[in-house]
Amino acid sequence: MSFWEYLGNRHAQLLADSLQHASAVLQCMVAATVIGVVVGIVTYRSEWAGDVATTAGATILTVPSLALIGLLIPLVGLGVAPTVIALTLYGLLPIVRNAIVGLRGVDPDLVDAARGIGMSRLRQLVKVELPLAWPPILTGIRVSTQMLMGIAAIAAFASGPGLGNSIFRGVASLGSANALNQVLAGTLGIVVLALLFDAAYVLIGRLTIPRGIRA
After folding, report:
1. How far apart are CA 70 and CA 41, in angstroms?
2. Under 8 Å between Cβ of 45 and 53
3. Main site of residence (predicted)?
4. Angle, CA of 89, 131 and 35, to the nearest 5°
5. Which one of 48, 129, 180, 193 has the minimum C-beta count within 10 Å?
6. How many CA atoms lie within 13 A of 149 on its CB side?
7. Sequence-ordered list of residues with C-beta below 8 angstroms from that of 176, at least 6 positions apart, any chain
């Protein structure tokens, strides 16, 4: 069976796996973004705290994804739970780092001006600092998403959702008629999803970042 014939016969299953893969990555990115930005807000004013937050995120990335998911299985079981926890943890570093860099890069004169017109600390953060820090934060989100697209394939090891199931089935049956087709279909599906997500982020950037800041 050729690759195109395989796609024609299995398109429904591949589409379902693709939707599950995209959904898992999207949900984990939302969680990682919220956590990462909050950590950045809490730590960016202190050099020591920012270094600790960045180092903690970097340390998580040194743990092999297969090992982390394997360690989570005895704690939370198989399926979605270990996938969500692992992906959220892996997605933190670029967002935390870029949030800290972006917030530290805001012009102090603008913050002083906001304070001078009577803005509270919270309003300064929401109205001035976060909007100006948004471009690097969005870049961190894009980087994290690209990483998680590939890491999410390992979720199949823990009976998680996504295109990793197709890849794992193909690897487990190497030598059979459709083994290569399964691996290729899963891999190309992940690449296409990564490109679609990145295109969406480019659009979000154009809609949310003023032209002057982009320039």
Report:
1. 32
2. no
3. membrane
4. 15
5. 48
6. 22
7. none
